[in-house]
Amino acid sequence: MTEEIRSQAEQLKELLVRSSPLIEEYTAMVCPECSDVCCRQKHGTFREADRIYLGALGIEIPPSDPERTPEGPCQFMGPTGCVRPRWLRPFKCTWYFCEPLLAALNEGPQKKARQLSAALQEMVDCIYQLEEKVRKGEESEIAVK
Q: Domain tally for the chain?
């Protein structure tokens, strides 16, 4: 694996770690009151970008639970939310903002909303760069497990 790809993945991990408390400020307000939890198995599925990112970090993708339906609760959902740290979750989990969560962002301090938006954009840019490097053949060693 090239050092550039590993460094890019580490940068993405840092962005996820750094943005997690900000996201969790909003989810802590909204999610406990939710009557229709959106943490579904279909959102907890690891996709190609997740595999590239975690592969660059040397992390194995946990197997999907074949007993769970896509619309059923996510296999990683615990009694108080996700049992995995944000940097180990599929990106779709981090970027899924339901209507009540979006409303909380819009109604809350706009400085925080802008910080979160900027962090999310930075993450998208990192993922795009990782995918491009892999697609261009700069890294054929990343295991897409």
A: 1
Residue 7: burial class (beta carbons within 10 Å; 0-12, 13-18, 19+): exposed
Q: Which two tokens stand for residue 33?
A: 């009151």
Residue 38 lies in a domain: yes
Alpha-carbon span 114 to 69, nearest angstrom: 35
Residue 145 has pLDDT above 50, yes or no: no
Q: At how many degrees (to 10) do helices 99-107 and 110-135 cross?
A: 130
Quick: pLDDT tens for 49-69: 999 999 999 999 988 888 999
Asked if the structure places residue 16 within a domain, the reply is yes
In a domain, 140, yes or no: no
To the question of pTM greater than 0.85 for the whole model, the response is no
